[in-house]
């Protein structure tokens, strides 16, 4: 199906809160059709209402691969093929020593953060392989440099980095697969959970989303697939007002 100005469809998991929500709203504001998902039905409905017609938002648990495949089929039927897929859904818990992490919390972290990237890859990379496109897994600086107190999250993001590097060597020409981390932390609910005393020192998702979306659309063009260590640009600092009061 033809879209206004032929802008590509952007698919974003974990799009009902934090960075994913900010990205979804930013891409929609730029005129792109957006397909998003989240686990909370109420948040799904709120985002769908904000985005309006021409977009698809569904309740999906990306830790369940078959749910993601069903969602991908719906997205293809209603909006066509994707040009950019962002595997963003993730969870992080409060800091504690690894031996104090409950098994259920450890398993949820891996199922969501690693299994969710696998599920998004399984559902959408075959579509990208037909026409070309880009698959981005949102990583973390803690997936490149370990964070004491967050062993489960660190393990999950190290796994994402390795998974992406392997998949990048498997896809056909015309498909790019990359892991990209925020240049600095972003003040989300997840960050407030693991860094309760300093999360407000970092930019809000809305400020982060503008340069992040631009980077995803244009900054990745010359980057070889499988490149490691990529980071989203940090948002520009707010300019002081004419009165100098900020």
UniProtKB/TrEMBL annotation:
Pfam families: adh_short. SUPFAM superfamilies: NAD(P)-binding Rossmann-fold domains. One of its GO terms (molecular function) is oxidoreductase activity, acting on the CH-OH group of donors, NAD or NADP as acceptor. Residues 227-246 are annotated as: Disordered. Gene3D superfamilies: NAD(P)-binding Rossmann-like Domain. Belongs to the short-chain dehydrogenases/reductases (SDR) family. This is SDR family oxidoreductase. It comes from Streptomyces lonarensis.
């Amino acid at each position: 199906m033809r879209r206004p100005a032929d802008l590509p469809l952007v698919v974003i998991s974990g799009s009902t809160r934090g960075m994913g929500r900010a990205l979804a709203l930013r891409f929609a504001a730029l005129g792109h059709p957006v397909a998003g998902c989240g686990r909370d039905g109420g948040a799904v409905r709120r985002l769908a209402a904000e985005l309006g017609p021409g977009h698809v938002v569904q309740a999906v648990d990306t830790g369940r691969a078959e749910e993601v495949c069903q969602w991908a089929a719906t997205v293809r039927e209603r909006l066509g093929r994707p040009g950019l897929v962002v595997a963003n859904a993730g969870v992080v818990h409060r800091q504690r020593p690894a031996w104090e992490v409950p098994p259920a919390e450890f398993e949820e972290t891996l199922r969501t953060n690693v299994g969710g990237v696998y599920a998004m890859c399984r559902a959408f990379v075959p579509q990208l392989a037909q026409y070309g496109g880009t698959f981005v897994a949102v990583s973390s600086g803690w997936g490149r440099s370990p964070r004491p107190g967050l062993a489960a999250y660190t393990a999950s993001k190290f796994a994402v980095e390795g998974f992406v590097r392997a998949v990048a060597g498997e896809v056909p020409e015309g498909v790019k697969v990359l892991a990209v981390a925020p240049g600095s932390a972003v003040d989300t609910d997840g960050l407030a959970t693991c860094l309760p005393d300093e999360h407000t020192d970092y930019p809000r998702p809305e400020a982060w989303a503008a340069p992040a979306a631009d980077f995803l659309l244009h900054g990745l063009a010359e980057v070889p697939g499988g490149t490691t260590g990529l980071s989203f640009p940090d948002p520009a600092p707010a300019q002081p007002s004419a009165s100098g009061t900020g």
